[in-house]
User: Fold this.
Amino acid sequence: MRFDTRLVHEGQTPTPGTGDLVPPLHLAVTYERSVQEPLRYFYGRGENPTRENLERCLAALEDVRFATAYTSGQAAAEAALSLLRPGQRVVASDDVYGGTHALFDLVRARGVTVDQVDLADPARRDRALGDDGPPPTLVWLETPSNPLLKITDIAEVARLAHRRGARVLVDNTLASPALQQPLRLGADLTLYSTTKFLAGHLDVLGGALVHDDPELHERLVAHRTTVGSAPGGPDCFLVQRGLKTLALRVARQVDNARRVVAALTAEPTVGTVHYPGLAAHPGHQVAARQMTGPGALVSFSYRGDPVKLMERVRLFAAAVSLGGVRSLIECPALMTHRPVPRDTRLRLGIGDDLVRLSMGIEDPADLVEDLVRALRAGPA
Ligand SMILES: *Cc1c(COP(=O)(O)O)cnc(C)c1O
Assistant:
């Protein structure tokens, strides 16, 4: 089965006896069992058939055996970081999700070293993963990054990291498995906030880790059962419902992004446009090699007041999150990246004038019209 078919068919085995093509939503948190013959299902914090259907689908999408679902992307990231011991070293992208910065602070407090570097820059990457410094246990990268959409070469990072015995985790939330498959490029683990593209409808939180290591799977399941970060049946059902249309939604979202980018580059009030699909983007060639499309996020610097722009648009909702069916607009300095100290933010290239768009599945002509009208409505 190919990817688009797997989205619809994997983890959808009809129930014996009824033949229903949508597996039932399992709500039970406990299961009757005989003491002589213990069942596979014991208690909902550990096992739930609806969760297992979702996990079967998530693993199949990347052609591996294991996926663990979580209550959120943050819970999935925490689970991956729980594997680290004091004294170990992590090399991570500098431009990571805001919540990831906060989790890194927690592991630093546990005595783990986290060195954040610009892994999208080949010279800095080679230095951080070269033979000097202590060997890392884990390399954590996010590509495309948020909000600047910097591109890191996954295969090259995996090659360098494996030489030093490190595992590579890719936060693949911004691309989704529809556009990028890190495990095929040599990474060891993919992390998702399924809240975003995978569920896609802005109505459920979820996260996942996907990989092919049986020993790791055992550790992750034990950790999740202990801390209680497994999602319930209804949330898993909603994520899997969303997954069925992932390929269709992402294709439309990428198309909408291309149309909006073309309009933005012609507007005099718009400065640099960050989009990996543009030939001038520094990661353009690597993106073309490792992704099947340049994504559905766009950011740009605006020569006006971003707050006024957010007030003037009508179809784009001023809101955080991304990857859903509705188009969103946000100003990272005021919203998603507000907790990042201003000098750090500016050093990363996230100016006060930066605006980020997450494309929905609306008609592109409506989106372009709305944005262009808002950009032209002066005074800035
Ligand atoms: C949203 C997001 C997360 C965190 O996911 P939640 O589901 O909100 O907990 C992690 N990484 C990236 C890149 C994200 O966009």
Notes: The chain has a mean pLDDT of 95. The CA atoms of residues 4 and 248 lie 9 Å apart. The chain has 13 helices and twelve strands.
